[in-house]
User: Fold this.
Amino acid sequence: MGSIVEIILLMVLLVQNQNDDKLISVIKDAILGSILANMLLCLGTCFVVGGIRYESQQFDGVISEVGSGLLLTAGFGLAIPCAFFSALDGTLNSEGIADPTDELLILKVSRATAVILLFAFVLYVWFQMRTHHSLFDAVLELEDAKDKETDDSGKNSKLTLTECLVALAVALTLVSMHAVFLVEAIEPLVEDQHISEMFMGLILVPLVEKLAEHLGAVEEAYNNQMNFALSHVLGSTLQTALLNSSLVVIVGWGLGKNMDLNFSSFQVILLILSILVVGNFIRDRESNYLEGSLCILVYLIIAVSTFFLNPQSARVVEGGEGGPVAAK
Assistant:
């Protein structure tokens, strides 16, 4: 459900984008912000909430190892277009526009990368659902036994199929309306309230979009179901990094939009360092409130830095007219 909400929002942003491509940067910020919110804020909150109630919580290595490996792969894939742009010795003018030839090459690399990342996601789903599903089933079935809110029969009360379909239809309708209203509110907020576009896309949009999903994972951590919580956090992160980012590029390709994966060097650094931080914390298959607090603090540092960052100034410094990169 969380992935559907995000896909709807990204597609609305993509369709609403005009010739000036102002919303393209918001889309890229929202993709990266969703990944960071899942990895740092949501996972950190899970560790803190669970760590306050329990001295330490353990999770299975199957989920953490597969998830961390795929995160590194996704981070590598999302960083390649930026590295490619740097290898071209590409520059941006004062308006943040690249040379047309370089921009075309970046689009080609981004589209090829999107197809490969989409294949990686399909491979991950096949691994989890078909060839090695018994590993994940065993872990999650054991985790289900820890549920503190089961009734006497040992099973949670569940909705019927009809109730699920009705609830899903209503939710998707409301989410679609919400996405349209949110997109329409972005430009007035940026212009009237002088909020940075990067802060809007990287912090505010993912927080609104992921709130319900985060609360579900935190509740699982509170009930000492860390395998469920970790699988939801890592699964959502991988869906954004591998599936949603690829879909928005491929759909933009079909619509004739200049949607690429050329993140700024600042954003790539945030992504790679965040993956390394989270990978280090889940490597020992154990969590506590200290590790969670550190993840949240890292996220707050990112939020503060993006709040004061002026994207136009950043572009000029990186490669604008008179900048250090501009001289060839």
